[in-house]
Amino acid sequence: MRIVVFGASGGTGRQLLAQGAERGHEMTAFARNPPAGEGDGARWVRGDVLEPADVQGALKGADAVLSALGIGFRRHATTVYSAGTAHIMAAMHAEGVRRLLCVSTTSLQPPPWSRSPAQRLLASAVLHPLLRRPYGDMALMERAVLAEDTLDWTVVRAARLTDGRRTGRYRTAQGGALRGAWSISRADVADCLLRHLDAPETHRSVVDVAY
Questions:
Q1: Which residues pair with 181 in a beta bridge?
Q2: What is the spatial distance between Cα 148 and Cα 133, in angstroms, rounded to a whole number?
């Protein structure tokens, strides 16, 4: 499958490139500043996700899109999530690409009562006040994706990201919250996205992933 990865230079993006190539996919990596001399088994394309023409050019001939867009653990206001994903979806429509998987976070919404009291406290008292501006933009992204009724999208909400190894052993919940969803490695998030790439039962649904 020919796959375009957005957010390719980040930790999750690099895992997607390497693991996708391992699985035999033809990987295209989209980044503003492609690394010199590093391939990850991918073709790197220079571009800005906030420039619609750049995005559409990268999607020509693609079969699917994996989006790991993000700004890291930063607190400033951004439109990378909402505007970037809007440009991706518009380009997918223009180029006839239907399959989209994008990374979000289990911390985005106030934790439901199915999660532990400690999780609820961490999210409501620490994460949401600290990251209210990027979380606000991520919420806009999610609303836009969930309202999309033509593309075959899946939103993968990951727990707190770590740099641990790929285990292939993690929990998922489709359309519901995971209890005790504390963390997940970037390598296993990438594994989860690639496993769900060809899973029509996850089309137009939200999947939580955590250990």
A1: none
A2: 23
**Distance between CA atoms of residues 35 and 111, nearest Å:** 37
pTM above 0.85, yes or no: yes
Give residue 188's identity as a one-letter amino acid code: D
| 135 tagged catalytic | yes
What 3-state class would DSSP assign to 124? helix
Give every CB contact of residue 51 below 8 A, 6+ residues apart in sequence.
87
Strands 205-210 and 171-174: antiparallel
Residue 83, domain CATH: 3.40.50.720
Which domain covers residue 194, as residue numbers? 2-210
Please write the tens of the pLDDT for every residue from 38-71: 667 899 999 999 999 999 999 999 999 999 998 7
Q: Mean pLDDT over all residues of the chain? A: 89
More confident residue, 88 or 126: 88
Instruction: Quote the CA–CA distance of 41 and 203 in Å, as a whole number.
Output: 27
Tally the domains of the chain: 1
- Using only the alpha carbons of the chain, give its radius of gyration: 16
Task: Locate all alpha helices (DSSP H) within the chain, ordered by sequence.
Answer: 11-22, 52-58, 80-95, 117-121, 128-130, 132-147, 186-195
Catalytically annotated residue among 81, 135, 170, 211: 135
DSSP code at position 202: G
Q: Is the CB of residue 102 less than 8 Å from the CB of residue 69?
A: yes
Indicate the helix (H) or strand (E) that contains 161: strand 160-162
Q: How confident is the model at residue 113 (pLDDT cuts 50, 70, 90)?
A: very low
